[in-house]
Design the sequence.
């Protein structure tokens, strides 16, 4: 696969929105003929007291956040949560621990048992545990782990403005360790942290040029949390999420593009535009680690509405939804690209 160039990504991000959505939809239709949406459920298996200083994260021990800290939960709680997720229609069950790195011994052994429990329910198992070594990655794979989530968060250039306790290269090393163990990769980033459009394009450039590309790419919108350094960040314009989803789909044709954190604050029309732009995975359930998520029943109604859409009149549908969103026929907002 040839390298995806920064200039190409910038050009895509700056297209008129209608054109960008239509182009992304054509790519999506070609590579995902079923048009299904993967439903992933997420649980925090160890909450708070993380030694990292990620400025967006309420789980960091560096910030004074109203968060109940919890030690590693019992496997019985994982079993119950996974059973509920499966009953509600989830395909993948994700477990996240607020660690800088996975420790050998009790922690690794506990996670291995949790993975086995999830797999016994015929669910895909995914974990995010911070840095992992080559040996740990092999142990997780042997337990049956399907996917490892390790977001790069932002561009290499902006990264140091957000995190000082772990380098960008360390993140890439963990991704490589998981990949080399035969585990699929879930890696994306966050928008709305004060980064530029160049930073967003660079983040996508890094992801698109991983070999192979990540099987799953979460695109998160910052959810500002009181007590964190980014508590006063303004919410992103929903159009920015559509642009990121659509561009991700075009340059990462075979990846599951996940409409992730911040989705709760998007209207149904915007979420459907994201699906039409190539998003085909969501977190499904009432919470995302420490932040609220969409109601399950409302998500079921949303997905049912999306699945019933007549895609033959796609251009008219896009215009209709953009009218609802922007109160004007054309939604080509002038960004400083």
Sequence:
């Amino acid at each position: 696969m040839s390298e995806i160039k920064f200039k190409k990504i910038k050009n895509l991000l700056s297209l008129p929105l209608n054109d960008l959505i239509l182009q992304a939809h054509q790519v999506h239709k070609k590579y995902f003929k079923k048009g299904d949406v993967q439903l992933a459920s997420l649980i925090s298996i160890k909450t708070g007291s993380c030694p990292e200083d990620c400025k967006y994260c309420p789980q960091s021990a560096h910030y004074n956040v109203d968060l109940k800290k919890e030690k590693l939960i019992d496997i019985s709680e994982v079993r119950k949560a996974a059973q509920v997720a499966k009953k509600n229609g989830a395909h993948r069950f994700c477990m996240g621990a607020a660690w800088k790195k996975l420790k050998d011994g009790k922690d690794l052994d506990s996670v291995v048992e949790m993975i086995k429990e999830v797999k016994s329910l015929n669910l895909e198992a995914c974990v995010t545990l911070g840095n992992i070594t080559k040996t740990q990655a092999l142990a997780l794979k042997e337990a049956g782990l399907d996917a490892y989530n390790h977001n790069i968060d932002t561009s290499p250039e902006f990264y140091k403005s957000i995190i000082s306790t772990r380098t960008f290269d360390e993140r890439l090393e963990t991704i490589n360790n998981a990949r080399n163990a035969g585990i699929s990769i879930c890696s994306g980033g966050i928008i709305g942290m004060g980064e530029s459009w160049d930073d967003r394009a660079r983040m996508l450039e890094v992801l698109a040029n991983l070999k192979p590309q990540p099987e799953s790419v979460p695109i998160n919108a910052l959810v500002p949390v009181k007590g964190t350094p980014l508590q006063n960040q303004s919410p992103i314009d929903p159009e920015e999420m559509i642009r990121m989803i659509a561009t991700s789909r075009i340059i990462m044709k075979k990846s599951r593009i996940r409409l992730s954190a911040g989705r709760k604050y998007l209207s149904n029309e915007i979420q459907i535009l994201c699906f039409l732009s190539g998003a085909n995975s969501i977190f499904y359930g009432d919470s995302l680690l420490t932040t609220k998520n969409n109601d399950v029943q409302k998500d079921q109604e949303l997905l049912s509405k999306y699945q019933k859409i007549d895609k033959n009149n796609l251009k008219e549908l896009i215009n209709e939804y953009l009218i609802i969103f922007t109160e004007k026929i054309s939604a080509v907002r002038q960004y400083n690209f």
